[in-house]
Amino acid sequence: MLYADFMSTALPPLPPHDERAAGPDLLQLGATEDEPCLRADAARNRAKLLDAAARLIAEHGADGVTMEAVAAAAQVGKGTVFRRFGDRTGLLTALLDHSERKFQAAFLGGPPPLGPGAPPVERLHAFGRALLRRTVEELDLQLAAEPSPDRRFSVPARRVLHGHIALLLRQAVPEADCELLAHTLMAQLNPALVHHLVRQCQMPVERLEANWTDLVARVTKTR
Amino acid sequence: MLYADFMSTALPPLPPHDERAAGPDLLQLGATEDEPCLRADAARNRAKLLDAAARLIAEHGADGVTMEAVAAAAQVGKGTVFRRFGDRTGLLTALLDHSERKFQAAFLGGPPPLGPGAPPVERLHAFGRALLRRTVEELDLQLAAEPSPDRRFSVPARRVLHGHIALLLRQAVPEADCELLAHTLMAQLNPALVHHLVRQCQMPVERLEANWTDLVARVTKTR
DNA sequence: AAATTAAACGGACCTCGGTCCGGATCGTAA
DNA sequence: TTACGATCCGGACCGAGGTCCGTTTAATTT
């Protein structure tokens, strides 16, 4: 089987924005960088907007990224921002897209132990370490880009990660409810939690990694 | 040890609103129903506001609970609402307070297996079932009351639940990182996740309960 | 009872996310 | 090259959360 069924669960269809549309719902890994078929001006503005947003975030942090400010910085109307990215979350998500794709490529086709080739439990360990590190790296953006509660688990990127974990779990502990166990593991990497533990509680990342390792071990232990 | 150290971890102090102030940070279980020392008019308005909010929520769902609407329905100025509850989340949280206290009382001092007297693992099982059921019951409100990412894990109610799980875990698996494991278990009961699984994926609650049971078993198994 | 003061009140005001629609622009077909 | 339709643009507009501050009112002191 391939990754075609990650998205198969029936869900209330989201309104078709330009971003996150995802077409026939395979991976979002098709085009490496360019979007489907944007009109020239649209594409130009999109680039300008992403650029402006990145600049703003670098200067004033994630909170400084006002939709109006982004529009102004990109010398573009406010409506254009929303037309292109749907909402604030969409814009911020788009900013994360690059690293997202890189990460997906790494665990889908990269070298072991993250990529295929290593035994599933090994891959799980590597996956947690890698994703945890990435989350910490771009924590502010991740926090700011958090979708509203009722979309949070339906976002394509999230489903891909979840699906991947579930797949590995199925190989390691077929008798378990891997679908749900995957959610359990994902929760460990939740940006809000990481923020709380690392920033607010000053917990070293190593402890989170250790806990991931331990949890994977406990969960994949067949009884 | 008692529950006095659940709140002991150093955290950036939240601005002192009337609600969630929590004073010297024991449990929020002190006064059963009345607030510290509100002026007569303030107390009256508080009651009117909560009443109005509950009415609005019953009529128009959680989305219909506009701060302005609540103020109007309570025949009170908008500023009063914010003075009393800090922000929207505060108001919604206050609405949940009653069942929260009931639940706390149940696992802190109620009959086993939820309350003290049963072996820790038993109590964990009961805890999950009970909290899961409560979450499903008031799901809409729970979703609407979700705090912003950087407060989510610092909210008193949440810390109490987390602390309780951690305590039980410490009794069952002293060698584990119970602090973090408690977060893992809590994640299972996250309203957003429950919403996703039960509402959007139509998953029966029994499956969530089964998964909780299974997870507790896996996690508390000493190696 | 009058004075005093800390607390509460209320609503004008601000910001920001999100919508809308008349007008400008791009790609295409003739 | 021109004409046409689909797409896009832009900024006025709206609603809701949150702030501010002059005014009112409840408790306390004299």
Secondary structure blueprint with pairings:
Two copies of one chain form a homodimer.
Chain A (H helix, E strand, L loop, with lengths): L39 H21 L6 H7 L4 H8 L2 H22 L10 H18 L1 H6 L11 H17 L5 H10 L3 H10 L4 H16 L3
Helix pairs in contact in A: 1-2, 2-3, 3-4, 5-7, 5-10, 7-8
Chain B binds a DNA duplex (30 and 30 nucleotides) through helix 1, helix 2 and helix 3.
Your description of this structure?
The structure is a homodimer of 223-residue chains. Helices cover 61% and strands 0% of the residues of chain A. By secondary structure, the first copy, chain A, is mainly α. In chain A, α1 packs across α2 and α5 packs antiparallel against α7. At the A-B interface, α8, α9 and α10 of A face α8, α9 and α10 of B. Chain B binds a DNA duplex (30 and 30 nucleotides) through α1, α2 and α3.
Report, as a whole number of angstroms, the end-to-end distance of chain A: 27 Å
DSSP strand tally of chain A = 0
Portion of residues in helices of chain A? 55-70%
CATH architecture of the largest domain in chain A: Orthogonal Bundle
What Rg of chain A, in angstroms, do the CA atoms define?
18 Å
Multimer state: homodimer
How many helices of chain A? The count is 10
Overall 3D form of chain A:
elongated
- Structural domain tally of chain A: 2
Name the chain pair with the biggest interface and residue counts per chain.
A-B, 39 and 39 residues
What structural class should be given to the helix and strand makeup of chain A? mainly alpha
